[in-house]
Structure formats: C-alpha cells, structure tokens
Design brief:
The chain is mostly helical. It has 9 helices and 2 strands. It has helices at about 1-15, 20, 25-35, 35-60, 70-80, 95, 100, 105-125, 150-155; strands at about 160, 170. A hairpin with a 6-residue loop joins strand 1 (about 160) and strand 2. Helix 4 runs antiparallel to helix 5 (about 70-80), helix 4 packs parallel to helix 8 (about 105-125) and helix 5 (about 70-80) packs antiparallel against helix 8 (about 105-125). It is extended and about 60 Å long.
Length: about 170
C-alpha cells in the first residue's frame, strides 16, 4: 500500500526524484507511528554517520570553510518533547517512565556538546579558526502548526504549477 501511494504521489507531483529522497526521511515513519525504539536506533545511526563524515572532512585539513548541520537535536525533540509535558495530548506515561525515552532530548544535546568540544579541542588550536554554533529555532511543547504554503495559496499569494500547457491550480480549502 505504501509503495502504491508513493508511486501515485510521484505521478501527481511530477517528481521523478521522490524515491531517491524517501530513505533519507525513513525515521519519520517511526515518528508518525510512535515507534520510539526504532526512531532512537535510526537517529543514533544517522548521527554516528554524520559525525564520521564531519570528522573525516576536518581531518583532511585542507578546508577554508566547513558547514555542517546536524538534525539529531531537532528530530529528537520533535519525537520526545511530549514526554516532558504531562498535559500534551500525545503524552504517554509508560514511555515517560523509561529513562531511555524520557531523557532522549538531554542525551541528544549532550552528544552535540561532545561533538563541539571535540572540534574545539582538536581543530581550533590555532586560535584563528572561528566556530559558529547556531540553531534555526528553540523548542517547546507543540500542539498547533501553520502550513505557510496553504495560507499563501488560500490568500492568493501563491499558485501551484501544473505540467506545461495546463495552467495553474489552487488548493481547495474544504
């Protein structure tokens, strides 16, 4: 059923590259279904591979700029913040009792801190190299969202393109 859905979506979206990017988002399946153990295994493996690639790049030493983005902290918070908020609609007291899940966000940030410390210790000794650590947002309990594209379309600020010769389309709000 999932493969049929992807093929149908790929055809409707005119996106031939969709099957190539889906494996990258595999952990979302675990997130949507609440499969927390599978999620943790995947995010830990992904983070380990990311660290391996980052340090291999830094070890080459012939770089002027290295830009690295980890999503471990963000994705872990999206999955587990609900366990820190007893009033969250998706709060699960059984999962919250398990320190592996309850403390997953803390551990993600501790691992990020270890990576930053290793970079500072092993690659910034010259005193001239600059390290910037940035975030695209903070985190808090999450109960509502806004689909900006939907809002732009519904208010006439954006249209969807159809294949050549078929004009434009708008999303229905009902």
């Amino acid at each position: 059923l999932a493969r049929a859905f992807v093929r149908r979506y790929q055809k409707l979206a005119h996106d031939p590259d969709l099957p190539e990017v889906l494996p990258f988002y595999a952990y979302y399946s675990a997130c949507v279904r609440g499969k927390v153990e599978a999620f943790l295994l995947d995010i830990e493996a992904t983070q380990a591979k990311w660290e391996e690639m980052l340090f291999a790049t830094l070890d080459k030493g012939n770089w002027d700029l290295v830009f690295a983005v980890t999503q471990q902290t963000d994705h872990t918070a999206h999955m587990f913040y609900r366990l820190l908020d007893k009033h969250h609609p998706a709060y699960d007291p059984n999962l919250a009792k398990n320190p592996r899940f309850r403390d997953a966000i803390l551990h993600a940030y501790q691992r990020a801190d270890q990576v930053i410390e290793r970079i500072r210790r092993d690659y910034l000794a010259d005193g001239r190299t600059i390290l910037l650590v940035v975030s695209d947002h903070g985190f808090n309990s999450f109960r509502k969202s806004v689909n900006v594209n939907r809002w732009l379309i519904n208010h006439g600020y954006m249209t969807l393109k159809l294949p050549a010769g078929q004009g434009t389309a708008t999303l229905k709000t009902s």
